[in-house]
Hints:
Organism: Pedobacter jeongneungensis
Protein name: MFS transporter
Number of helices: 17
Largest sheet: 2 strands, antiparallel
Radius of gyration: 20 Å
Domain Major facilitator superfamily (MFS) profile: 28-400
Distance between the termini: 16 Å
Strand order of the largest sheet: 1-2
Helix content: over 70%
Structural class: mainly alpha
Order of helices and strands: HEHHHHHHHHHEHHHHHHH
Membrane topology: Multi-pass membrane protein
Strand content: under 5%
InterPro entries: MFS (IPR011701), MFS_dom (IPR020846), MFS_trans_sf (IPR036259), MFS_Transporter (IPR051788)
Amino acid sequence: MEESTQDKEILVxxxxxxxxxxxxxKQVRLAISAFYFMQGVCFASWASRIPTFKAxxxxxxxxxxxILFALPAGQIITMFFSAKLTTHFGSKKMLRATxxxxxxxxxxxxxxxxxxxLAAFLVLFGITGNLCNIALxxxxxxxxxxxxKPIMSSFHGAWSxxxxxxxxxxxxxxxxxxxxxxxxxxxxxxxxxxxxxxSKKLLDHNSKPDVPAEKTKFFTMPQGxxxxxxxxxxCSMATEGTMFDWSAIYFEDVxxxxxxxxxxxxxxxxFMMASGRFLGVYLxxxxxxxxxxxxxxxxxxxxxxxxxxFPNIIVAIxxxxxxxxxxxxxxxxxxSIAGNNKKVPAGKAITMVSSIGYFAFxxxxxxxxxxSQLSSLRYSFGIISVFGLLITFxxxxxxxxx
Length: 402
């Protein structure tokens, strides 16, 4: 399939210049990484406690799947204006405002005592999380250009390290029998402290293109290569969403680990996801983005197949680690390609791609719950393995990626 001139231009690495950079590139990289890290800790604090919510509320798989629908629903709601806000106010101001809101929204989850209350708080958690996410990835693209090297995957690696840290904190606190509300407030206070100190080193970033663009609608549907990038993100995020929401439950219900040890499955996935993202800079330079995307898709399918076919603790952990390695660099590469373009502001381009990708979070976790209720959790995980193969196939259709 031949790319149009517009599609080729989208793939050109165009620098989105910071308006003001009082910090060194290393300081900027560290500050941005700190925000990614804390966003990962906040998310993992919720994800690691999902089995606790399921048990305390007496939910079956289908009921839990329906409730999990609320988090991505909140994320989707903000897709229609998050890019506009980030472009208008700048990613630095948006992060200063939304990162504290995201941390505080986490604490509300612990107040839920019924399914509908949990769903309502998850919508709020999703809204604040996506506003923070778009601003953070826009700041990440600016930081990558300011640093002068392809370090976007290392930013997402910091998120994964935060996720792993959050999972390990949860594992320790669950075994210490510390209350969830106290747990979430400890994380929130650490996040608020990070905002105070790290935001000073962020870039005052102008995400608008150098050439003034024609006036567009409030929300523009993605076109051309951005659609294919969005579908690739969808497949990766569907896999990630399954692992975030269901991996601990899979180890409890299928692998048959006790409740206080089931987080090991989630932690093993996150360990390799973090490792893969820090290796991403080297792997991209060695294999190129196109080859790495194709390899990653194949690894996802192999890992998921192993965990489903051989659900004993050793093979399942190995399979989950392969899945973590497979998904590790896909979204960072997709965001970097989308965010470095000539005609669309970075925040808007990332939103176009992520608006497709986040539908995976919207439909993936509930689908797992419904299929599991009708058959088994193993069958529902088996369906997800197809997405890895789809990633490998779709990458071949984007010839301009190198």
